[in-house]
Write a structure and sequence with these properties.
Number of helices of chain C: 17
Structural class of chain B: mainly alpha
Radius of gyration of chain B: 25 Å
Helix content of chain B: over 70%
Largest sheet of chain B: none
CATH architecture of the largest domain in chain C: Orthogonal Bundle
Number of helices of chain B: 12
Chains: A alpha/beta, B mainly alpha, C alpha+beta
CATH class of the largest domain in chain C: Mainly Alpha
Number of strands of chain C: 8
Number of domains of chain C: 2
CATH class of the largest domain in chain B: Mainly Alpha
CATH superfamily of the largest domain in chain C: MetI-like
CATH architecture of the largest domain in chain B: Orthogonal Bundle
Strand order of the largest sheet of chain C: 1-8-3-6
Largest sheet of chain C: 4 strands, antiparallel
Largest interface: B-C, 64 and 62 residues
CATH topology of the largest domain in chain C: MetI-like fold
Radius of gyration of chain C: 33 Å
CATH topology of the largest domain in chain B: MetI-like fold
Number of domains of chain B: 2
Oligomer: heterotrimer
CATH superfamily of the largest domain in chain B: MetI-like
Order of helices and strands of chain C: HHEEEEEEEEHHHHHHHHHHHHHHH
Chain lengths: 286, 291, 435
């Protein structure tokens, strides 16, 4: 176990990044056929917590994430970040901002910028740092994350696992309150995925940022999360909320522990049920 | 909510209509400038133009163009004329002739280049060397070669569509996912089956793309060829040689309104043929309809 | 042995031929129980792949590994220090804890083999890196693996060597000879049909030898050859017209396309007019252009411009619309303002399409230039072709056509080179994609 992991702080001590989702409803309306994506969903995420959202593909998890990020509006309900209103009755759409940064499903590193320029992008755009300073900070953060050597490569030249790490470092450059991860490891093979999980935990122990993590992989959810919210298929709302009582810091030995197996068994049925419903409803992948 | 969405669609429509109307009004005003610019109120504008080196009594560029209202009137004049419709027919039959010839020769040729490495090695470099020569540069050579003007115009039209169709067929066939072949082979398909059931349908979408582009070029070429070659037989009256000749003849005869009538007619004709092609494409590639 | 190699993590995805060559490098060695395969500090020459049996692998305390002791079985690889220049000595002790059969491969030989085929070599090395990261987490080693990884790549980018390498590959393949056959067939058919067999219709055409003689004649019978100044004057006039039209079309078309794709409102207002004018063939504009512009010169340039303009604007618009929504969202997330998104996301994101558009645009500008010059104009290659026809100088027509093809090709290649230069990221990505 590395030295960093031992200095880890238990969850919930970070002062910022608490998300409160209250009774959120989102109805999509393509040409009048109302499609309910999120149905009276409430969820409380403590500051500095890793909250895993599990549900079948296309259940509306991403809709929830997009509402928090400010990519689209909600129909009713409200979302608070550290007690401040992000979106609600008078303001159906949140402003996207660098306090809530999304890591996208298929990755959104700008292919036309080098990895270094990608990482330095945020502070330069916000005018917080001058380009030279931003690049210096980016270099040191990339070195910390084990990404030295690829700074001047383009994202297209490095492995997809590394790209995800660069993307997370790009988010952390802005010192966000919340990281919103939308199935970031979906496209990776299971070997790379396992490396990525440990790397993510390492980053988390260093930065103590709140993480809102969407996945459809139950093992991934229980391995990483403090809290696992299992969602119903469309419309999406929490079916079961599980507090994972395996102490952090965790590493791969957790996967073979009895408690882990028990938790999986406890939740597996709920997930499977929703997956069957989604399959029957004929949801397309996405 | 439903209302909001619907009104959104209609805003797009209204904006489109508004902008086209605005365009027509500006055009009308611009071409009528030879009437109003000479009046006293607009002396300042004349002075302004004079400073820019324009001494004429109408606006530059737009001034000599006939106004939409005049064009409409002229159109009303020719719409009952058999000759006008005869030029539609002439141009259409030339486009169809050249285009169908390009499909009949271009698709097998492209497929041959795509499936055989040897054929590709022999044929493609020659093809690539000839391709940058614009089709219209072939007009004189074509007139010398072919016995009738009709054939020579059709030949140049054919060339215009031929290159794009071949390029798209080769590209389309080469980009077919290798896994389809492996799947077919593992299910025991013969090479003829693979050709017929995988290469041909796999190439169809890009054949349709190539055809759509080719159709556009075909119209360009027909119009130009008709203008350059003088429109073929001039026995059939003023409009004997197709829409391109109709335009050229109107120009020679000084009837500027009819030039614009011809231009719009060709625009409509091109649009109709693209639409026909598109519905044909939808019909032959039903699996793409869902996207 | 091939079967085992195929199961080992670094070689899983390597092609069979490569695998066979790797297997040829290997030597089978049997170890008794408790035999020390190597000890920390020994010099590192070979890497080892276990065929059967078990081996205990203990890393030196100094290397800060996450899991110092590992029990290895069939299909596992160890002794990878042999691949690393910075570690000439073993960092671990390897002991057979039951009788084991092991394949030894010389590290230098393996590296040389991998370098000979950068594509699969790259895969093997990155797999090694993943393996070391996952199983051992030795920071120095990882850094060095990356360095090797880059070295494999750098051979890709050393332009001159690569060009020579590709040239030699090309010469070894049947392609140049097939190409010669192709041109041979084409030219001999031209020659035979026109000048030897004198086939009907072909008889009228200018023959191959006639054209070449005329083209290379210091004293051409029809007035145009590579020795006459007029020939170059026509070429320059055409190029100058295309350049003006192309530059103007790009300067207006690219921004228009960017805004059409970027602002929905702008598109709703402007695009309908654009789409009404676009289906009208450029050539149909010829008489109107002559009426609109006082000088023929401006009319010709206007026509050439028009075709380019539509192609450029349309492709640029499609380019902006094709940009993945998540890039725009990511940029807003990272705190970019609207104008910054336009500058850092929209413009570079649309660049590949813009250059496709410019390629098409330069093609259509030659297309319409020829037409415009044929109909009206006093100079230029289109004019040469048309007047040669009316003056019955048939060989000159062919000279004009070939010249046009050549000049057109060169200009479009120039646009492509400019595009590659501006889009380094894309070139490198494609190079990795096994091009």
């Amino acid at each position: 176990m590395s030295a960093i992991m031992q200095q880890a702080v238990p969850a919930g001590t970070a002062a910022r990044g608490a998300i409160r989702i209250e009774d959120v409803v989102k109805i999509y309306d393509p040409g009048g056929a109302a499609v309910m994506a999120v149905d009276h969903c409430s969820l409380d995420i403590k500051a500095g917590e890793i909250c895993m959202i599990v549900g079948p593909s296309g259940c509306g998890k991403t809709t929830l994430l997009n509402a928090i990020a400010g990519f689209h509006d909600i129909t009713s309900g409200r979302i608070l970040l550290d007690g401040e209103l992000l979106c609600g009755a008078d303001k159906p759409k949140a402003e996207p901002g660098s306090d809530r940064i999304v890591v996208f499903q298929n990755g959104a590193l700008f292919p036309w910028k080098t990895n270094l320029d990608n990482v330095a992008f945020g502070p330069i755009m916000q005018g917080k740092l001058r380009p030279a300073e931003a690049k210096e900070k980016a270099l040191s953060m990339m070195a910390d994350a084990g990404l030295s050597g690829v700074e001047h490569n383009y994202p297209g030249e490095i492995s997809s696992g590394m790209r995800r790490r660069v993307e997370i470092v790009r988010a952390l450059m802005n010192d966000p309150k919340v990281l919103l991860l939308d199935e970031p490891y979906r496209a990776l093979d299971s070997l790379t995925k396992s490396v990525m999980h440990e790397a993510l935990l390492e980053i988390y122990y260093k930065n103590k940022v709140t993480i809102f993590f969407i996945t459809h992989d139950l093992e991934e959810a229980i391995f990483l999360g403090h809290k696992v919210a299992i969602m119903t298929t469309r419309p999406c709302k929490p079916k079961k909320i599980l507090e994972v009582d395996i102490p952090h810091p965790r590493d791969y030995s957790v996967l073979t522990s009895r408690r882990f197996r028990e938790l999986i068994e406890e939740t597996n049925e709920a997930v499977h049920e929703e997956a069957l419903k989604a399959f029957a409803a004929g949801e397309k992948e996405g | 909510m439903a209302l909001a969405k619907k009104s959104l669609i209609s805003t797009a429509l209204w904006r489109g209509v508004l902008s086209i109307l605005l365009f027509l009004v500006l055009w009308e005003l611009g071409s009528r400038s030879r009437h109003w610019l000479i009046q006293e109120e607009f002396e300042w504008m004349r002075n302004l133009l004079a400073m820019a080196g324009w001494e004429k009594k109408y606006l530059p560029w737009i001034g000599p163009i006939p106004a939409p209202s005049e064009v409409l009137k002229a159109w009303g004049g020719v719409i009952g004329d058999i000759g006008y419709w005869h030029s539609w027919y002439k141009s259409f039959s030339r486009v169809a002739g050249g285009f169908i010839a390009a499909m009949i020769i271009g698709i097998p040729f492209g497929l041959l280049l795509a499936v055989s490495r040897t054929a590709f090695g022999i044929g493609f470099p020659v093809f690539e060397v000839l391709r940058p020569i614009p089709p219209l540069a072939w007009v004189p050579a074509s007139i010398i070669f072919w016995p009738t003007q009709e054939l020579s115009i059709t030949f140049v039209t054919f060339l215009g569509a031929f290159y794009t169709i071949v390029i798209n067929v080769v590209g389309g066939a080469k980009s077919i996912d290798l896994r389809y072949f492996q799947a077919a082979q593992s299910m025991g398909s013969s090479s003829w089956d693979i050709f017929r059931r995988i290469i041909l349908p796999g190439t169809l979408p890009s054949i349709m793309v190539g055809s759509a582009v080719g159709m556009g070029i075909t119209w360009e070429v027909v119009v130009a060829a008709e203008m350059i070659s003088g429109g073929g037989s001039q026995i059939g009256g003023t409009a004997g040689g197709g829409l391109g000749f109709f335009i050229w003849n109107s120009y020679v005869g000084g009837s500027y309104e009819q030039i614009v009538v011809g231009m719009i007619s060709i625009g409509i004709a091109g649009f109709i043929s693209s639409e026909l092609l598109r519905s044909l494409g939808k019909y032959v590639t039903p699996w793409l309809r869902l996207r | 042995m091939l079967e085992i190699l195929k199961k080992t993590m670094p070689f899983q995805v390597v092609s069979d031929t490569m695998l066979r060559r790797i297997a040829e490098l290997g030597k089978r060695v049997a170890y008794d129980k408790a035999a020390i395969i190597y000890d920390a500090g020994d010099s590192a020459g070979d890497i080892y792949i276990i065929l059967s049996g078990k081996v205990e692998h203990t890393l030196e305390p100094g290397v800060n590994a996450r899991r110092p002791v590992q029990l290895l079985g069939a299909g596992d690889v160890f002794g990878w220090a042999a691949l690393l220049e910075k570690f000439p000595h073993r960092l671990a002790k390897a002991v057979a804890i039951e009788p084991a059969e092991i394949v030894r491969i010389n590290g230098d030989d393996l590296l040389r083999l991998l370098e000979s085929d950068p594509d699969s070599g790259d895969v093997v090395m990155s797999r090694f890196a993943t393996m070391i990261t996952r199983d051992y987490t030795v920071p120095d080693l990882i850094a060095q693996m990356r360095a090797i990884h880059r070295k494999l790549h750098s051979s890709d980018i050393q332009g001159m060597n690569l060009t020579m390498y590709r040239l030699s590959l090309w010469l070894k393949s049947p392609r140049p000879y097939l190409m010669l056959i192709g041109f041979g067939l084409f030219l001999s058919f031209w020659y035979l049909a026109v000048e030897v067999w004198k086939l009907p219709r072909f008889r009228e055409m200018p023959g191959l030898t006639v054209v070449i003689k005329e083209w290379l004649n210091p004293d051409p019978s029809y007035g145009l050859s590579i020795y006459t100044a007029e020939y170059y004057q026509h070429i320059l006039v055409s190029i100058w017209r295309v350049t003006q039209a192309f530059v103007l079309a790009s300067l207006l078309g690219v921004p228009l396309g960017l805004f059409l794709g970027w602002s929905r409102k702008f598109k709703e207002y402007v695009f309908p007019v654009f789409e009404t004018l676009r289906p009208i063939p450029i050539l149909a504009w010829v008489p109107l252009a002559i009426v609109m512009f006082i000088s023929t010169e401006s009319a010709v340039i206007y026509l050439t411009f028009l075709a380019s303009f539509f192609a450029t604007a349309l492709n640029t618009m499609l380019g902006v619309e094709s940009i993945d929504e998540s890039y725009v969202r990511a940029a807003y997330c990272l705190g970019a303002k609207r104008h910054q998104v336009f500058r850092h996301i929209i413009i570079p994101g649309a660049l590949p399409f813009i250059f496709t558009g410019l390629q098409i645009s330069i093609g259509v500008s030659w297309f319409s230039l020829v037409a415009a010059e044929m109909v009206s104009g006093q100079y230029g290659l289109g004019y040469v072709i048309n007047t040669s026809y009316t003056m019955v100088r048939y060989p000159t027509i062919v000279i004009g056509m070939i010249t046009l093809g050549f000049v057109g090709y060169v200009t479009s290649a120039m646009v492509r080179i400019l595009g590659d230069y501006l889009m380094q990221w894309r070139v490198r990505e494609l190079a990795l994609g096994g091009q």
